[in-house]
Specification:
- The protein has helices at about 5-55, 55-75, 95-110, 115-120, 125-130, 140-155, 160-165, 165-170, 195-200, 205-255, 260-295, 320-350, and strands at about 80-90, 130-135, 180-185, 300-305, 315.
- By secondary structure, it is α+β, with helices and mostly antiparallel strands.
- Strands 1, 2, 3, 4 and 5 form a five-stranded antiparallel sheet that branches.
- The longest helix has about 50 residues, at about 5-55.
- The protein starts with a helix and ends with a helix.
Length: about 350
């Protein structure tokens, strides 16, 4: 048995050596693969740089010409102006607002300027200057988002509500989820925006919103009458209580109550009852004040938080910077032509 032990140990050492050699070979291949990737990237960069240097004059001329054409188009293109308006609709008039904004864009697309002049009370020349209307959710903070999330969950059953996370709600919520909206208008005329407000203000009123407002007013009126009736009852109870206390005080003076305990009991009872009636009256008056405040705060179909500016700001995007876009596109076209020529030459010279 002792003779077989050295042979067994030697065999294990050979196996471990082969394993380490295999692992070392894998790391070597991995390192060579990574080197080949960087070498290929470097080669592509050098070939591209070489092509640019070899054709520098042609590239420079094309880019300068493309930039000049783009700059000329920027100068000849009419300026676009934009202005924003922040509104807070009530009584679900936001649905009508979004619908009407889409309707205005449809009229602009169909060039129905006569209808636009009727809606906004502007002349046809000004109507032709309108480019588009946009509506977006207005500015909001985290508390506003949480309120929207809570209101959304209230409309779901308990099982479904557990599946909707806050982040998913924010990503997929509808434009109607918010309470404040930003109306954005683009036009070729810089001072047209103020004249559009009256027409936009009419978009908040429809039959549904009017009925909802009337229904709200009716409910508030019923609650108000109930509170006033309760206040009258409290006032009547106060008068009755005062008369009772006066009678008890007279009886006390006449000697009906002969002990101090009786006097103390009457005083404590009087104080407790007065506090209860006072608390009831204060609670009812607070509720009445809240109803009046609600009526005053939401007595219109919308509030304008921020009006259009008298003069709009110039509207530009990167896609309208032709002096930058045209040279970039020209360079892409030159690169495509260069690669096409190289591929054709390679195919023709290929012998298999």
């Amino acid at each position: 048995m002792s003779k077989n032990l050295p042979e067994h140990t030697s065999s294990e050492e050979v196996d471990l050596g082969q394993l380490f050699n295999m692992i070392g070979g894998l790391f070597t291949k991995l390192a060579d693969f990574i080197k080949s990737i960087f070498r290929a990237i470097f080669s592509v960069f050098i070939y591209a740089l070489k092509a640019i240097i070899d054709n520098f004059k042609i590239i420079a001329i094309v880019l300068v010409v493309a930039g000049g054409i783009g700059f000329a188009l920027e100068k000849t293109r009419p300026d676009v102006y934009t202005s924003q308006m922040l509104v807070k609709p009530y009584f679900d008039s936001k649905f009508q607002l979004v619908t009407n904004i889409n309707y205005y864009n449809a009229l602009i697309g169909e060039k129905d300027y006569k209808q636009l002049t009727k809606i906004f009370d502007i002349n046809e020349e000004d109507a032709k200057k309108l480019i588009q209307f946009e509506i977006h959710p207005g500015p909001e903070n985290e508390n506003d988002q949480i309120k929207q999330y809570d209101n959304f969950l209230k409309g779901l059953d308990s099982i479904r509500a557990q599946e909707v996370e806050f982040d998913n709600f924010l990503e997929n919520r509808s434009i109607y989820s918010g309470d404040i909206f930003e109306i954005n208008v683009q036009s070729f005329k810089k001072d047209i925006f103020r004249s559009l407000e009256d027409g936009l203000n009419l978009t908040f009123t429809n039959t549904y919103s009017r009925k909802k407002m009337e229904r709200r007013d009716s409910i508030l009126s019923i609650k108000r009458q109930r509170i006033i009736s309760s206040l009258k009852k409290v006032d009547s109870l106060k008068r009755v209580h005062i008369r009772v206390m006066e009678e008890e005080s007279k009886n006390l003076d006449a000697g009906t109550y002969s002990s101090r305990d009786g006097l103390s009991f009457i005083q404590e009872k009087t104080k407790t009852k007065e506090v209860e009636l006072l608390e009831d009256e204060m609670s009812l008056r607070k509720e009445l004040s809240e109803l009046e405040s609600q009526k005053v705060e939401e007595d219109v179909f919308f509030d304008t938080l921020s009006s259009f500016q008298d003069v709009g700001a110039k509207y530009t995007t990167i896609w309208e910077r032709y002096s930058i876009i045209f040279p970039f596109l020209a360079f892409l076209v030159l690169s495509a032509i260069y690669l096409t020529v190289k591929v054709i030459k390679y195919v023709k010279s290929y012998e298999g």
